[in-house]
Design brief:
This protein is mainly beta and 1270 residues long. The protein has 11 helices and 93 strands.
Length: 1270
């Protein structure tokens, strides 16, 4: 067609590329494309793969034509109609070349059947009719059907193999196996409140899914489940899920380089890389991953996956996954204000409740933090009262399928948790992690707010206050007109409990009935967190602390709890002047002083000589009695007077004392025994007289004087009795004894100034008692710990405390001997370890014996009971008395087994136990010593069932919150008291073939073999279920046999092979005497192939019955070579082996020749007789190509024409190679006694099936001519 006139300039201007060059380039490109098209045509012809080439060249030619029109090159410009015509013609020839279009001229076309479900087109040349006519022109024949499409037969694809009687061929090509596996990584999935659905991966191999079906079965036991939901997904649904998933995980921006995508890059990547990574899993090039979106909990089971070839993908063995609600745990109720802050000494148990939700059994991990010290705990086996599936119900299930099929529904479980607040400080409890029975693990802080995942409590010390530097033996002094500050401080207190309020009372002195001071009770508070306070005292009397109370806790009052306040009087002095007379005259004056007040005293006196100015002097006296001796050096008239007196409390108090003029002369001496150079102190605990010893020097007898006069003392040492002053004897206190003068035999009297004796009069005896009210004098401690029993003591110095442990129902019935301890302070503790009632007997301090307060002399100590464990009454077990063992019923290997245990004590519990197994020599061996944790009083204890044998479980030690195993490792349960559990785990039976040699049988023979031996493991007798699969007929028969030993030779007399071909004998299941389901059978050793051959036949080629010596008699044999032929010549039997058919025999002997038998398959299949044979078609006479996946089967259909019965021989050869070269023949089979006109063979092997010969009742094709060499 001439080009259209130019209407516009070329797309590429002529100044860049001239028009002839543009035409040259375009035509060169067109020639190159056509050359490539011819090359692709040859490839499509030899490989029979044409669909991809058809679409490729239609698109290429269309693009070329459109691009040519766009370029507008002169002389190559056409109108739109011409362009459309060009495109249509090119597409027509492309379809004609590459199979998109078929033309039939003389014969019906053939359609190649492909396993993918699409229609492919082949091209070969059919001329079977012409061939037959050319070879046998002398044979008449009927005309074949003719129609208009036969005109195009040179372009058709019918196949006749060069023979009109043996038409068609069927080629099977193996495609890679198509598989689908749900959840290949065995991940766990759960639905949370924030996640409405989960994506479950499905791993595909060689599969392009167009349809998918799965079922969702609600969780729970079978009796309570609703009907499973069936979900069908199309390819569009699958793509939508993947698109949404990719969109959610896609990056927010894409670089321009990433946008520049070329579809051919995929092919290059596939050639350069054999694997790629998707997510975290490495996939091969043939693999892909799709996802299922599941929004409800349940068991998801993949039912089927349909490939684009409309073939079901093979599902992996593990085709189920459980989707559960995500496990969750939280504290149920917030703590009250009283529970958040506790005081020591109160009830130490803090009750907490944890709400757990999930599929049991659940495992909870939590932490306890006490003053920064962190401890982790794991509690396992948490489950409610939902009934379990009995192991008997899943005896025939494998463990994994039983767990999935009998999945349990989620439960709400409320767990009580009692915490012991036994350490002062901050206690924190944190829920950390929870996992359910499926394996989902959830971090609790990520799903639960802090107020529900943590609990905190603080244990405060009880405040303890007492007077400081004041007590019964140490009163505080009060000066007249001033105020005393009584200091009260905290011996023990917690700053979080501040401020503290102290209650006290005031009691005036007993002898002040008419006093202006009245008793009262008051309270005062500390300032902020200060731990001390001051009580003002402006009146004498006794101030007693009554109680102390903090912001949260009531406290204790320690000794000294009473502070006496004594008002100090003004100092006074009694003065007696005497002249010092030395027998020869006066030498001075002396004043005997009795001073009243608090020593030391300072005496101020004045001395004046004649008319001189007076001199003021002073002298210090350490005690209340003293002597002032004044002996001036000068003579004269002296006046001595005392003016003022000071003591420890008052300064320079004026006193009214007489004066004196002059004094003289020294005398004898006396002193107290062992007084030394210091003052001696003695004590008086009772009575109104004190005895002291005095040593006298000089000439006796002596007269001694202190406050009392003692005369006519004749011995150098004299014990004198001094009465205690009445006011001191009444309320106690101290007074001094001093020697004032001594007179010797001559009558010379001398005033003495020697150290005196201080007498401490005790009228308050030491006491001892247990602190606290009678109802609170009881303490419970852990076994082995110490108990500190608080004491309150009065008295001075170190005390001796005899006590004894009274009768106790825990320790012994006899009263043990008394023990003595030493107490060093008034608030000491009696430290004990043993339980029982402790009784105080007496007390002695450093000076005086005391008394025990009768109503506070006892204190009771108890032990916290140790935790214990016992078998639950609901657990079925037989108790063996002689060893105390509980024997459980036997269980099959791999099935879940458990027992319920009842625990007593304070949760959480820890159970250390030994797992032992019978070693087969009459003894046991310990396998492990694990520790099991539980937070419930009744817990489920999992048993070891993964391996067979007799297992022993011995509970060695039980710990709880009070007795944790970490601190009490040495405290094990005595062997005679331990819980012992026994259980026999039965081994699962198994079976396998000892060898894999193929078995050979004849048609209609029963399966019996000496080489097919099955080895059985387990306890006989066994029950074996076998499947016999006939691959040719697609039929599977099940046979059950009983075997009494561990070795069984395949022998099935009741079964017969009814068709020829390969049969697969598979061990489907085996049971033994224990009734357990079999273990996983080895797929390589659980099946064996059996080849079943037809009965051998021999057919004479011609019908002659008379032969001459030297003639050749030919026979057509049917069966599998080699054959063994038996015949007789004149009654003499002979045999001959033939390896091919036909078989020819030269007759060399005259007489009668008779064929007696023929056999094949190692001479087992023997028969006699003959049948003739003619016409067949394979695949309806067409060239059929079928693709199947590995593991699938294809049906090869043989159409037989003639008079039955038929006998035909077919062969399987390698697929046709490049260039049309036929492949190597792999196997040949002959089938006989076919009474139908169609016969099918099923095969899973690759190759091309053709018929080589056929015979019916009368004729055979191809015939063997008489005299023709075999």
């Amino acid at each position: 067609m001439p080009p259209s006139p130019q209407v516009s300039v070329s797309l590429i201007p002529e100044q860049y590329i001239d028009y002839p060059s543009q035409r040259l380039y375009v035509l060169s490109l067109a020639c190159l494309c056509q050359a490539i098209k011819v090359f692709d045509f040859i490839r499509a012809f030899t490989s029979a793969e044409s669909s991809s080439f058809t679409s490729k060249w239609i698109i290429t030619d269309t693009i070329f034509c459109l691009a040519l029109a766009r370029l507008r090159i002169p002389r190559l410009r056409y109108n739109k109609a011409t362009i459309i015509l060009h495109i249509s013609m090119l597409c027509f020839f492309d379809a004609l070349l590459f199979g998109g279009l078929r033309l039939h001229l003389w014969e019906r076309g053939d359609v190649t059947q492909r396993g993918t479900g699409t229609i492919q087109f082949t091209h070969a040349f059919s001329c079977s009719l012409l061939t037959v006519i050319a070879e046998r022109p002398d044979l008449p024949s009927t005309p074949q059907p003719w129609n208009f499409k036969n005109i195009f037969s040179p372009f058709s694809s019918s196949y006749d193999g060069g023979d009109a009687h043996l038409l068609g061929q069927h080629t099977i090509r193996l495609s890679p196996i198509s598989t689908a596996q749900i959840n290949p990584q065995r991940d766990t999935f759960c639905l949370s409140q924030t996640q409405s659905s989960v994506l479950i991966p499905v791993l595909l191999n060689n599969t392009d899914p167009v349809a998918l079906r799965y079922t969702l079965t609600p969780l729970g036991p079978p009796s309570s489940r609703s009907k499973p939901d069936t979900v069908d997904m199309s390819a569009r649904d699958i793509r939508a899920i993947e698109a949404a998933r990719l969109a959610a995980s896609a990056k927010p921006s894409v670089t321009p380089e990433e946008d520049d995508y070329d579809e051919y890059d995929d092919d290059e990547d596939e050639e350069l890389q054999s694997v790629r990574r998707v997510g975290q899993r490495t996939l091969q090039n043939t693999q892909s991953i799709i996802h299922l979106r599941v929004s409800k909990p349940g068991t998801v089971k993949l039912e089927r996956v349909i490939d684009a070839s409309h073939v079901e993908a093979r599902l992996a063995y593990y085709s189920e996954v459980v989707v559960t609600p995500c496990p969750k745990a939280q504290f149920t109720e917030p703590l009250s204000a009283d529970e958040i802050i506790r005081c020591s000494g109160d009830n130490p148990d803090l009750p907490l409740r944890i709400d757990v939700h999930g599929v049991p059994p659940l495992s909870l991990k939590w932490q306890k933090v006490i003053n920064g010290q962190r401890q982790q705990f794991v509690v396992e086996g948490i489950e409610g009262d939902q009934p379990q599936v009995s192991p008997d119900a899943v005896t025939t299930e494998t463990p994994s399928s039983a767990i999935t099929r009998y999945g349990r529904a989620a439960q709400h479980i409320e767990i009580p948790l009692t915490i012991a607040l036994d350490t002062v400080g901050l206690h924190q409890y944190l829920l950390e992690e929870i996992s359910d029975g499926v394996g989902n693990i959830v971090r609790i802080p990520s799903i639960v707010p802090p107020e529900k995942s943590t609990r905190s409590a603080r244990l405060l010390r009880r405040p303890a206050f007492s007077f400081k530097q004041c007590g019964a033996g140490l009163p505080r002094t009060l000066l007249i007109g001033s105020e005393a500050r009584l200091s009260v401080s905290a011996n023990d207190a917690d700053s979080a409990d501040a401020p503290w309020e102290v209650f006290y009372k005031y009691q005036p002195p007993e002898d002040g009935a008419n006093s202006k001071h009245k008793p009262y009770k008051k309270s005062t508070k500390t300032e902020g967190s200060r731990r001390d306070l001051v009580i003002p005292a402006n009146a004498p009397g006794e101030y007693t602390l009554l109680a102390v109370k903090g912001q949260h806790c009531e406290g204790d009052i320690l000794a000294p709890d009473a502070c006496p306040v004594i008002e100090k009087p003004l100092p006074t002095a009694e003065i007696e002047w005497q002249k010092i007379h030395e027998c020869s005259g006066d030498t001075g004056v002396s004043a005997s002083l009795v001073m009243h007040g608090t020593p030391p005293f300072i005496l101020y006196y004045r001395m004046q000589r004649d008319k001189q100015p007076p001199r003021d002097l002073s002298k210090t006296f350490p005690s209340s009695r003293g002597e002032l001796t004044i002996q001036p050096q000068d003579d004269g008239h002296f006046v001595f007077s005392i003016t003022q007196l000071s003591d420890a409390n008052y300064q320079r108090v004026a006193i009214n004392a007489p004066s004196i003029d002059q004094v003289i002369h020294p005398l004898a001496s006396a002193e107290f025994v062992q007084s030394g150079h210091g003052r001696k102190r003695i004590s008086s605990c009772g009575g109104n007289i004190v005895e002291v010893d005095v040593d006298l020097k000089g000439t006796g007898p002596w007269n001694e004087q202190d406050t009392l006069d003692f005369k006519s003392i004749s011995t150098p040492r004299k014990r004198i009795q001094i009465p205690i002053p009445a006011h001191v004897d009444k309320s106690g206190g101290a007074f001094d004894i001093a020697l004032s003068s001594v007179t010797d035999k001559e009558g010379c009297k001398r005033a003495l100034n020697v150290p005196g004796i201080t007498v401490n009069v005790r009228r308050i005896l030491p006491t001892v008692k247990f602190y606290g009210q009678e109802s609170k004098r009881r303490v419970t401690i852990l076994e082995g710990d110490e108990a500190k029993l608080p004491l309150r003591l009065t008295g001075d110095g170190v005390r001796l405390l005899p006590f004894r442990l009274g009768k106790s129902n825990i320790v012994t019935k006899a009263l043990p001997a008394a023990k003595t301890v030493r107490a060093s302070n008034q608030n000491d503790f009696l430290i004990v370890r043993d339980p029982g009632n402790y009784e105080l007997l007496e007390v002695v301090d450093s000076e005086c014996p005391g008394a025990v307060v009768a109503d506070a002399s006892n204190y009771h100590v108890d032990w916290v009971p140790r935790p214990s464990v016992r078998l639950s009454e609901k657990t079925k077990a037989t108790h063996i008395a002689y060893n105390g063992s509980y024997v459980l019923d036997g269980i099959c290997e791999g099935l879940p087994g458990h027992v319920d245990l009842d625990l007593t004590g304070r949760s959480p519990f820890e159970i250390m136990y030994n797992i032992a197994k019978n070693n087969g020599n009459g003894g046991t061996e310990i396998l492990d010593q694990p520790v099991f944790n539980s937070i419930q009083q009744r817990t489920r204890f999992d048993l070891h069932t993964q391996s067979p044998g007799r297992f022993f479980y011995e509970v060695k030690q039980v710990g709880d919150a009070a007795y944790p195993l970490e601190k009490h490792r040495s405290s094990v349960i005595p062997r005679s008291e331990r819980l012992l559990i026994e259980q026999q785990v039965h081994a699962r039976p198994s079976a396998k073939f000892l060898n894999r040699d193929r078995l050979s049988y004849c048609l209609l023979d029963p399966p019996s073999s000496h080489t097919g031996v099955v080895h059985l493991e387990g306890a006989p007798p066994f029950s074996i279920e076998l499947s016999i699969r006939n691959l040719g007929a697609g039929r599977t028969d099940l046979v059950t046999v009983e075997v009494d030993s561990h070795i069984w030779k395949v022998d099935l007399p009741a079964y017969q092979f009814e068709s020829i071909g390969a049969h697969l004998i598979t061990i489907e299941s085996v049971k033994d005497a224990s009734g357990c389901a079999h273990a996983a059978l080895d797929p390589l050793r659980s099946s064996i192939w059996a080849d079943v051959a037809e009965t051998a036949l021999i057919v004479p080629v011609d019908r002659r019955q008379d032969f001459c010596v030297g003639d050749i008699s030919s026979f057509q044999m049917e069966g599998i070579p080699p054959w063994t032929i038996g015949y007789k010549i004149n009654g003499k039997a002979k045999t001959q082996e033939a390896r091919s058919s036909p078989f020819s025999l030269i007759q060399q002997h005259a007489g009668e020749f008779t064929i007696t038998s023929i056999s094949h398959q190692q001479a087992r299949c023997r028969a006699a007789g003959h049948r003739p044979s003619p016409y067949s078609k394979v695949g309806h006479g067409k060239r059929v190509f079928q693709d199947i996946h590995e593991g699938d089967q294809a049906e090869i259909l043989f159409t037989l024409e003639g008079e039955p019965p038929f006998t035909f021989t077919y062969q399987r050869a390698e697929p046709m190679k490049r260039g049309g070269k036929p492949g190597k023949v792999l196997e040949t089979h002959t089938v006989s006694r076919i009474m139908t006109r169609e016969y099918s063979v099923f095969s899973a092997q690759e190759g091309t099936w053709t018929v080589t010969s056929i015979a019916d009742k009368y004729c055979r094709y191809p015939p063997v001519q008489p005299g023709e060499a075999p």
